[in-house]
Amino acid sequence: MKGLRLYKSEKLCSRTAIDRLFALGRGLKAFPLRAVVRLEPKADAEAAPARFLITIPKKKHRKAVARVLLRRRVREAYRLHRRAALHPALEAAGVRADIAFVYLSDSPLSYAEIESRMTALLADIARLAAAYKPDDDAKDS
Fold first, then answer.
1. What DSSP assignment string belongs to 62-130?
2. What are residue 24's phi and psi, to 5 degrees?
3. What is the pLDDT of residues 75-126, one digit of tens each?
4. Contact 60/66 with Cβ under 8 angstroms?
5. CA distance 60 to 129
6. What is the DSSP letter of 5?
7. CA 50, 55, 61: angle at the middle one, nearest 5?
């Protein structure tokens, strides 16, 4: 996979994987974003190093236009920074990550603010991956 494009294999779509992520994942926060992360040993060399999903609560942003705008901003920040900040750490640790980004703020923030918080979250996830031990997940399963 070359370039900055987001591929289908990088999107978290499986209902069971999403349920497992929210049940067993670890939460990280960089307001206005919260990330729920689940690391596991990488089994397939061809698989994407990280899969993600973005959720913008309807309770806080009633209009679909506002949710779509925020989802685009979060997705763009992730797309631009994942290769530099996240993927090298995941590859070095030999793990893959499932990540859910949840937007927490009641008001839409600018792209620059979302981008700076996204880079902070990706750096935190990279630190988690570097400290990951395979038995961390064994006790959860």
1. -SHHHHHHHHHHHHHHHHHHHHHHTHHHHHHHTEEEEEEEEE--SSPPPHHHHHHHHHHHHHHHHHHHH
2. -110, -5
3. 999 999 999 999 999 999 999 999 999 999 999 999 999 999 999 999 999 9
4. no
5. 31
6. P
7. 155
13 against 43, higher pLDDT: 13
Strands of the sheet containing 33-41, edge to edge, are: 26-30, 33-41, 95-103, 50-55
Domains of the chain: 8-138 (3.30.230.10)
Which residues, other chains included, contact 80 with Cβ-Cβ below 8 Å and sequence gap of 6+? 4, 115
Q: Reduced to 3 states, what is the DSSP secondary structure of residue 10?
A: helix
pTM confidence score: 0.91
